[in-house]
Every structure is written in C-alpha cells, then in structure tokens.
Design goal:
Elements: H1 17-28, E1 31-32, H2 44-55, H3 68-82, H4 88-91, E2 92-95, H5 97-109, E3 115-120, H6 126-133, E4 136-141, H7 151-157, E5 162-168, H8 180-192, E6 196-200, E7 226-231, E8 244-247, H9 250-264, H10 269-281, H11 285-306, E9 310-311, E10 319-323, H12 333-344, E11 346-347, E12 349-350, E13 365-369, H13 374-385
Parallel strand pairs: 1-11, 3-4, 3-5, 5-6, 6-7
Antiparallel strand pairs: 2-8, 7-8, 9-10, 10-13, 12-13
Helix pairs in contact: 2-10, 3-10, 5-6, 5-9, 11-13
The structure holds glutamine.
Glutamine binds next to helix 1.
Protein name: Aminotransferase
Keywords: Aminotransferase, Pyridoxal phosphate, Transferase
EC number: 2.6.1.-
C-alpha cells in the first residue's frame, strides 16, 4: 500500500465546522450568523493607530514576547480592572490570537496522555488543541437553563492524571458567565489535585445585565497555577489582526514563550502598537461595547423566540444557543443548519459541534452569533420569521 504521508494526529479532528458554515453562507448568499466575527467597522481610534504605526515604520519583528508598550498596556489594564500585579517583562506574552495562545498553553504544559478537563458545550478549537498536544480530554457537561455544572460530576472528573482544566468565561457557545462561587469550586479542586487552570477570557468585556467577569487568576492561591488567555479580536472588533495574549507566572511563562517563539516568532508589529494605543485609551470604550452588544442581543433573542426557538438568554459573549425542537423539523442539527442556510438564507452552527463527538448532545440545538450589524440582524430576523 502506498504511504499516506499524513500524520495520524491530523485524523483525530476534522475541519472547523464554524468556518465550514461561513463558506456555505457565502456559497448560498445567506446572512452569516455562524462565525463569531463582526461585519461592522472596527473603532476608528484603533484603525488610525495601525495606520500611524505602519507609517512610523514599525514594520519589523517585534520582540518575540510582544512589544514592550503592548505588554505594559496589558499589565496596567490587568491592574486597573482586576487588581493583578504583573511584571510585563516576565508574565505577559503576546500571541497570534487567543487561538495560538491556547495551543501554546497546551503544548507548554501537557505531557502525552495527560488528562485535561473541559466543560461542554465547548469552543471547538479545544479538541484539535488536545489532539496536537497529546492531551486526553475529560468532559464535564453544563446542563439546564443556566448551563450549570454538578460539583460532584466535576470532582469525579479530577484525578492524579489531570494536568489542567480549561475554563472559558464568558462562554462560547452557551453565553454563560461563571460566577465567583463556581470559579471557587473549580479553584478548590485545582488546588486539591495540584492542577493548572487554563482560562479563555476572550469575551471578558462582553457582559450583560448585572454579570461580572471574574478572572480565575484573581482567586486566592490561583495566580500561581493559572494561564490566562485573552486578546483584542472580540473587544476591538479586529478578529483578522490576530492579536491575543497569555498571562502566567514566570515559571509557566518561560515555557509558554519558548513554544510561542518557535511557533510564530510573534504577532504583527504595527498591529501590536495599535493595540497598545487602543488599550491605553479604552476604559470609556468598554461600556459602549456592552451597550452595543446588549442591543444586538435583544434583536436576535426576540426574533428567535418569535420564530419558535427556545433560547437561554446569554449573560456574556455574543452567541445564542437555540433549541429548535418546537419548530417541527425532522432532521438533526446539521440538517437543520443546512436547511436554514439553503432555504431561509441564515447561517448558524450545528449544536453538536460544541459537544464531544458521538454523544448525541446538541442535536436539537444550533448556535447563532449576534456580532453583526443591526442591518444584518434585522434581515436575518425577517428571513427567520418568514420560514
Ligand atoms: N470564536 C469565533 C466563533 O466561535 C470564531 C472562530 C474562528 O473561526 N476562529 O465563531
């Protein structure tokens, strides 16, 4: 038999369903409520800062760990917002998006065969991240209206083989914001079992109602065992800039930085400069961002409920998981997603892509994003209501 020339690790995960839905949306001219990226302009102040940085000839490699000004801006913000006292020279690393940050974290801390706990529904990247780093994922399911976890089920997931737990809050796709009490339960188990916590906090500034973002690294005793991931993509509507970052104590940052250096060398230098300018100026921008997304959430929630979906109102992030059981459609989530794209002209993501393969969970759900212009949302609403 001829050699396949392809490594086995590539066979244990498939193409991103989210990005596949984007391609299908384009093919069929559907409104893309599948992939979570804004279709409206980024704020003028960040765009101008990027143009200025290019014209000022900040066009060569930045320092691998990230430009000093950006790392300083990130550290200052972490102090102002969360009371974290970071050394930007040792504890902050800029990456090509939160996507690279998560891959770096897994490659830097996981040994082949180690267990990593993940809450499901989960953001789909964690599965390939685990496959490429040799981790074995252990799932804990978020259930019911509020997507809560059973503390006993969580405890049973921990063992001496557990290397880390991934916590994504505010959560994609559920819209859940983990409470301080829930985070404390997780933290207690991390300490008892001497494991790390890797957090994905990319939606930290997209929160609704009274919900508050609590970084795991701020809980007593947790900074030393937490790798915090965030980035600029969602907050500043610049998903194509690929700017993320890692915050971790020096012993972990040293390992993260080595992996990052040889994966990508670094994120785009002029965009890092623009990111620094944006973070330095953004304290009054964050409340505007929340208001903007609260309005978008209201438009889509209302349309989905009127169209017959059962939806949990998101507490944060910009997704709605919608149950289509009451709509009288026979097929599963994938068939329903394709039907919406082809026949209705609105693209969602099938719910099952956020659950472990083969579990059957998510087969009555689809995910919509409302990170779109009011015009896009209203047209999508019109199409869904005419179904
Ligand atoms: N985080 C976004 C989503 O869940 C975009 C994912 C991606 O394509 N990188 O839709």
């Amino acid at each position: 038999m001829p050699r396949a020339h392809v490594a086995r690790r590539t066979s244990v995960f498939s193409e991103s369903v989210i990005r596949e839905m984007t391609r299908l949306a384009m093919l069929h001219g559907a409104m893309n409520l599948a992939q979570g990226y804004p279709d409206f302009p980024a704020p003028a102040f960040i765009k101008q800062a990027a143009v200025d940085a290019i014209n000022a000839d900040i066009n060569q490699y930045a320092i691998t760990w990230g430009s000093p000004r950006l790392r300083r801006a990130i550290a200052d913000k972490a102090r102002r917002f969360y009371g974290l006292d970071l050394d930007p020279d040792r504890e902050v690393t800029v990456t090509c998006g939160a996507t690279e940050a998560m891959m770096c974290a897994m490659l830097a801390v996981v040994e082949e065969g180690d267990e990593v706990i993940v809450f499901e529904p989960f953001y789909e990247n964690y599965v390939p991240d685990a496959a490429m780093s040799g981790a074995k994922l252990v799932f804990v399911t978020l259930r019911g209206e509020g997507f809560s976890f059973d503390p006993d089920e969580l405890r049973r997931a921990f063992s001496p083989r557990t290397r880390a737990i991934i916590v994504n809050t505010p959560n994609n796709p559920s819209g859940k914001v983990f409470t301080r009490t829930e985070l404390q339960q997780i933290a207690d188990l991390c300490q008892e079992f001497d494991t790390l916590c890797i957090t994905d906090e990319i939606y930290e500034h997209i929160l609704y109602d009274h919900h508050e973002h609590v970084p795991m690294a701020t809980l007593p005793g947790m900074y030393e065992r937490t790798i915090t991931i965030s980035g600029l993509s969602k907050t500043f509507s610049v998903t194509g800039w690929r700017l993320g970052y890692l915050i971790a104590p020096p012993r972990l940052s040293d390992a993260l930085r080595k992996v990052h250096d040889f994966l990508t060398v670094g994120a785009p230098a002029p965009l890092q400069e623009a990111a620094a300018v944006a973070i330095e100026q953004a304290d009054s921008y964050y409340p505007e961002l929340r208001t903007m997304y609260a309005d978008k959430r209201a438009i889509l929630l209302d349309a989905l409920r009127r169209a017959g979906f059962a939806c949990h109102q998101p507490e944060g992030a910009y997704y709605i998981m919608a149950d289509f059981s009451a709509l009288g459609f026979d097929g599963d989530d994938t068939a329903f997603a394709h039907h919406l794209i082809r026949d209705i002209g609105v693209a969602p993501v099938p719910g099952s892509s956020f659950y472990r393969p083969g579990s059957g969970a998510g087969s009555r759900m689809i995910r919509f994003t409302f990170s779109k212009s009011e015009e896009t949302l209203r047209e999508a609403a019109r199409r869904l209501l005419s179904r």
